[in-house]
Amino acid sequence: GAGVSQSPSNKVTEKGKDVELRCDPISGHTALYWYRQSLGQGLEFLIYFQGNSAPDKSGLPSDRFSAERTGGSVSTLTIQRTQQEDSAVYLCASSLIGAGGYTFGSGTRLTVV
Amino acid sequence: AQTVTQSQPEMSVQEAETVTLSCTYDTSENNYYLFWYKQPPSRQMILVIRQEAYKQQNATENRFSVNFQKAAKSFSLKISDSQLGDTAMYFCAFTPAGTYKYIFGTGTRLKVLA
Could you tell me if B104 lies within 8 Å of chain A, comparing CB atoms? Predict the structure, then answer.
């Protein structure tokens, strides 16, 4: 696609429920990233996918968080048993190899009530 | 640890004036990249400008320019002729060459006043 697409744009969920956030990167971009943006904070790295290599999951805050990338394209970030501290904007980005800069999606605002 | 610091949580500037946003970083790397991203209310992060550490010349993109001081580990963003559409959060980011994780600052909220 022309840009990085994320869905849903906003999600309100009850504490304890599972949620899935979707990211559709730019076609041809081999690298895909998930970041979390909490109120008043910078962006916190969560996970990185590059081609067929094993993902870098070092930023996932707990084992309730997982992500997959199917067919080297679409990625899903899953949060199980959501907690109020999971409330944040979850941003996805994609890029070609190198440091030309990420292209970000518009994010998913997750609110856990 | 590598860190990025933006010491100005909020700033405002009159339309058509010039404003400078500060960013400092801490690293032992010699080769790296620095970025400024803009995040308007739409939430989408937009790349404003990019600087390669091995280039001494400051990057410029239209009304946006940087003052890159490698020895001081400083990377400020100057916005000239500010426009209402420049109102946004601005994030400074750093990544060592050959890596992929970006380290972001906490952002500066800029408001351009009519």
Answer: yes
- Indicate whether A105 belongs to any domain: no
Domain housing A19:
5-97
Amino acid type, A25: P
Domains of chain B: which residue ranges? 3-113
CB B100 within 8 A of CB B33: no
Given this structure, which CATH class describes domain B3-113?
A: mainly beta
- Spatial distance between the Cα atoms of B43 and B47, rounded to a whole number of angstroms: 13
B35 at A interface, C-beta within 8 A: yes
DSSP helix/strand/coil, A78? strand
The CATH number that applies at residue A38 is 2.60.40.10
Average pLDDT, chain B: 94
CA distance A30 to chain B (A): 12
Taking only the tens place, the pLDDT of each residue in A86-110 is: 999 999 999 987 656 789 999 999 9
pLDDT tens-digit profile of A16-57?
Answer: 999 999 999 999 888 999 999 998 778 999 999 988 888 999
